[in-house]
Records
---
Amino acid sequence: MKEYTATFHSHFGAVKFNHNLKRMGITCALRPVPRALSSSCGTCAVFESEEWNVTNLDDVEGIYIKEKDRWLSVYETSEN
């Protein structure tokens, strides 16, 4: 399993994402966003999955995976 970190445009989006993952049986925790990642709301969701194939990306700013000391982007929103 890989650990992913999702950032959001709003705190409500983070809470909604967390709720949806838990309903799908995916372990998820809300945490402060690491300094190396940009976020509009300061809250991120950390979850484990074989693949980040999550369907509800309404308020997601980006999804990242950490390898060694680097954050690799696996999804970024096209919104500004």
---
Amino acid sequence: MARQQHKSTGEKSQPDAAAPSADTAPLLGRRRLLRLGVLLLLLAALIWKRDAWLPQLVHPRVRAALADRQPDVALKWLDRLDTVVDGDPESAFLRARAYRKQGDMEQVRVWLQKALDRGLDPERVRREEWLAYAQSGQMRQAERHFTQLMLDPRGDSAEICEAFVTGYLRTGLDAAALGVLDTWIADHPEDQRPLILKGQLLLRDGSYARAAQQLRAAATLDPDNPELAISLGKALLARQQHEDAMQQFQMAMHDSTTAVDARLGAAAAHIALGQNEQASHLYQQVLEEIPNQFDALAGLGQIKLDAGESSEAVPLLNAAVALNPRSTDVRYALAQALQAEGRNEEARSQLDWVESARKAVEEITNLRDDLPSNPDDLAARYRIATLEYEFVSPDEAVLMFASILAYDPDHGPTHAALARHYFEKAESDPELLPKAREHAKKAQTAGIRLDTE
């Protein structure tokens, strides 16, 4: 009925609002085309100007990674950027800084030159070269620029301090490193890194109270750092604060990267508390995970020796000495175990070595004490390095050898010593063979022939 009434009045039905009329359809089509055209123009402009805006997006991420001491992450960001934007001078500079943090000084040289060729301010390039000198231990070239750098740090005071601290530590100048660390701490009280480095350096030098103080201060800034907890635990253990040390080690046990070191530290704390059974359990856990772990073998061997179980102690201590023949403590423990087993001649051999090592360490200490006043005494440095290589640690010796080359890049005996070292290491790591051959070639140039290959 309503339908019929509608028809009778002559009214027309309303058109569907969703369907454009014949008159408006062309207009809507033109509007869509206009929007698409604008979007295409914007996209073209973004592509055309990508050299300007894309680095501005990526470079802050790169700088953040470098500030967090993650050069690998920084290089990945730069790799992605370089696939789109090539020839950017700032990218070349940041890449050079990332390689410096990795210790690859040859790549630092290459990329600083590229930054210069691409138009970067030469002054920035020079300043980064000075930091490369410092970090690589070439302190003669670096030290004369330290004051200039710090008077005008240009936002890089932490970078400057870290590079010089690294160089001083590489060259055995601990007192100079501590001085720069104090400057770094004063300028950046919010940064835990210099506090950790100072604490670890003091710990290594036997200043346990001062080490604990610095490491506690760092822990207030970075309370969840498991590596920091390990260092603080060691300092507290050395100060006979065994329960506090145990807490630090237990905290670090929950991180997979520090779990082994934490168990070893906790075991040492248990021993100090007279809890050898708990310590043995932790050493066994470590050995189940890493069968040839030096500290666990040595610790368990010492526990067996103290318990009067010399027959069980000898194989454990022998295995530890095979892994680290330069450990005087373990060699002395092995001598005691051998004596208990009636193997006196073998025990005498171990004790003779321990006595030689004691004299060597005493000489090293005296020579190192004189280094700050005579940093370019290469004969003293070479003597320290050779003694450290034989009686202390090849890794520490290599650092001292490297410091000699910072003063005299053509020092033949040092190249010969490093060539022998890397040829030996190359037996298990063939990638070190080129480095061994390079040192051998330089030794030969200096008139020293090697029969190592």
